[in-house]
TrEMBL record:
InterPro entries (alphabetical): Claudin (IPR006187), Claudin_CS (IPR017974), PMP22/EMP/MP20/Claudin (IPR004031)
Transmembrane segments: 82-102, 118-142, 162-185
Membrane topology: Multi-pass membrane protein
Keyword Amino-acid biosynthesis attached: no
GO cellular component: bicellular tight junction; plasma membrane
Coiled coil feature spans: none
Natural source organism: Heliornis fulica (sungrebe)
PANTHER family reported in the protein's UniProt record: CLAUDIN
Keyword Translocase on entry: no
Keyword vocabulary terms for this entry: Cell junction, Cell membrane, Membrane, Tight junction, Transmembrane, Transmembrane helix
Name this polypeptide is given: Claudin
Source species, domain of life: Eukaryota
Amino acid sequence: MGGGARELAGYLAALGGWVAALAAAVLPQWRQSSYAGDAIITAVGLHEGLWMSCAAQSTGQVQCRLHDSLLSLNVHIQTSRALMVISLLLGFFGIIVSVVGMKCTKVGEDDPVTKSRIAVAGGVLFVLSGLCTLAAVSLYATRVTYEFFRESTVPINARYEFGSALFIGWGAASLTLLGGSLLCCSCPAKERRGQQYYRQSQPSTAREYV
């Protein structure tokens, strides 16, 4: 795979990961009611996310309520919120920086070395964004797992388990890390050596011709 194709593939993967991370941050299904066990399943399904909690009835009606107070939230929710916001900001700046540094764009074509460095910087931003998403989702999942097995006196179908937003977040982190790693493969040092060799070879060729 050529350098330009690798950068384009990395950019598209990182962009898809950023969009998925945005969807995961907004969705309220970070944890949901467990339907395991032999007890009768209730007609109301509960979902909780970083910003709101929802109750879905068997009739299809869904009621959501935003979290009222930031300070009253659990520490893991506040931490996951902060990590997701940082991840989205890093990814946003990574999108802008990577567009400038990619070989398929016409911005800064006169200096390919600097252009490759900008692409690497965009890849680093994407990698950091993916790590923040991975940390936020994993932290929340660890808390859900701990509470599921800790509450032994509560029926299984009254506990919470992983929601769909967690799996979207893990997929988003994987795509963003993959795309950022591909962008980081742009190596400006090789291009610099090639340019120096080309400049040194020109005078000698001219002298031999004369």
